[in-house]
UniProtKB/TrEMBL annotation:
This is Xylanase. The keyword NAD does not apply. The keyword Secreted does not apply. Coiled coil: none annotated.
Amino acid sequence: MSKFTDFGYTQAQIDEKFQQVLDTIFTNEETKFYYDNGDGTAYFTDTGNDDVRTEGMSYGMMIALQLDDQAMFNKFWAWVNKYMLITDGPMHGFFKWSAQRSGVSNAEGSAPDGEEFFAAALLMAANRWGDGEGIFNYTAEAKSLLHEMVHKDEEEGGRGMFDPETTYIRFVAEMDISDPSYHLPHFYEVYAQYGNEEDRAFFERAADASREYLKKAMNPETGMSAEYANYDGTPNDFRGHGSFFSDAYRIAANVGLDAAWTGKVDAELTDRVVKLQEFYKGQIEQENIPVYWIDGTIVGDKETEDGQSLLYVKHPVALKAGMAQSTLATPNNELSKYYVDLFWNMPMRDGVYRYYDNLLYLFAFMSLAGMYNKYDKQASADRVLVPN
């Protein structure tokens, strides 16, 4: 399925543009943020924070999987295991969410979205390429990680990444709140199918529960959700992240990919996405887009506790990319075409904040081109492009 071809773009146009996207991220010296150390490890750097994050490393592994580039996949995973793996204490088996480019740790705790992508990428890597040895035994690595994510609450002093009662993914293991953009039901179905048999029922329940949670978190009139939210879906303004801001731009995109991978299109959830698309139509083309509370009122001249201005959208390319990817969950109508065309004609981001924007751009491009797929056992890609 390709939304691009649905709306009149040719495969030749798609392939040419995709190669440009890959070159921007991986090879162009002025714009790239991928670095190969030449020692069997590689990393993405967050250009806005000058660090390496499990978010970006797990995205890199998923991208390498989709590109059928096992060597790149292994280099990302080797860097993560060398510098980010927590080997002792109550969080053993998780990964420190931030490190310096040299590998020196910046953090003691983890951010569950990284672990979620690691687990999904590893399981599908096993399906696509087969298992190797050591850390490249993808199935064993994924199953071990998923066990810790689910069962660490059973250890003395431990806190898992999934709440045992609700099955909701936690914002961080230590807190009983969530980040709606971490809810990835399409990944949970992969975990249920290929992960630990003992947790199959848990992840089947988690997939359904996450779809229901998103309906609570996404405002029924605007489709917006806060970056951080309570288990009842209401915004949680922890450290000033209770508005529709950067993390939240991934939510509608995730709904779109869930629909594409699983074929499960929930009418109420689709309506939330359409409301979001309607809310932003037109104003999303402004040079400065206001930041909103989820009820559609403007936040104004405020900041998060870490100093991020909430006056205007910080990552406009990411917002537009997420809106385009959300069309995977909606009909091929004029509203969907508006966002796909807007995305197609939008340049990638340059400058210091290009990391987050351009990764979401790449995911949206692959999704709309039919190049971001679930890999089952013995599956193979029809079309593969790799960076020059």
